[in-house]
Amino acid sequence: MKKALTVMGIIASSLGAVALFLDNVEKVVDSFESLADWLGISKPAYELELVCKDEVSFDQWRKTRFTLVGFNCTGDDLQVRIEYGFGDDPEAGSFSVEGPVLRGSATRQWQTITVPTGQDFEKSVRLPRLELLSVPEIDPVDVEIHWELHSINDKKLLETGDHLISIRGPYD
User: Fold this and answer.
1) Which of 61, 96, 140, 152 is the residue whose CA sits 20 to 30 A from 71?
2) Closest listed residue to residue 128, CA positions, set 113, 146, 109
3) What's the pLDDT tens digit per position in 66-113?
4) Residue 71: CB partners within 8 Å, gap ≥ 6?
5) Are 64 and 85 spatial neighbours (Cβ–Cβ below 8 Å)?
6) Rounded to whole angstroms, how far apart are CA atoms 166 and 162?
């Protein structure tokens, strides 16, 4: 019985020491965050990165995906808007690339992705359908992807970016 009480005492003391250690670790982390804020090197509230190939063949275009990765700690849901190719006629909902060489599908010119607050995210986005209008004289043909990051509640534009994808032949 005395031995059991001694073992329980050791366990209780160990748990108390671990709790004290974790409390001190939390205070140290808070101190570093305060110091970082004071020095002006605080962690950003959001981050967005576009992960995508730089070149793809025309026959692999529809199988290509790109991924938006990052985190959102802003306290507000964010929204990413993606535009492909910078269209000739936005009302028609289609775009042409390099004149009459390729045309993008009407339904996929803009895509909108919501990024919930307080979360890391990884969103895979499929590229729009492309139609071959004529065999290009130049190879590769470039398609520009433009993205915008908006705060939903504040309706503020937070960040923009572009990525150029080269589409090469054969154009089967």
Assistant:
1) 61
2) 109
3) 888 888 888 888 888 887 765 455 444 455 666 667 766 644 455 678
4) 46, 47, 119, 120, 121
5) no
6) 13
Structure-token pair, residue 45? 């509230």
pTM of the predicted structure, to 2 decimals: 0.61
Q: How far apart are the first and last CA of the chain?
A: 84
159's tokens:
């960040």
Q: Which of 98, 109, 113 is nearest to 50 (CA)?
A: 113
Alpha-carbon dihedral 108, 103, 93, 112, rounded to 10 degrees: 20
Q: How far is CA 162 from CA 52, 76, 134, 166, in A?
A: 11, 24, 26, 13
Tell the residue number behind the tokens 């028609």, with chain if given.
92
Q: Are 102 and 127 in contact (CB under 8 A)?
A: no
Structure tokens at 148: 């915008």
In this structure, are strands 55-57 and 157-168 parallel, antiparallel, or unpaired? Answer: parallel
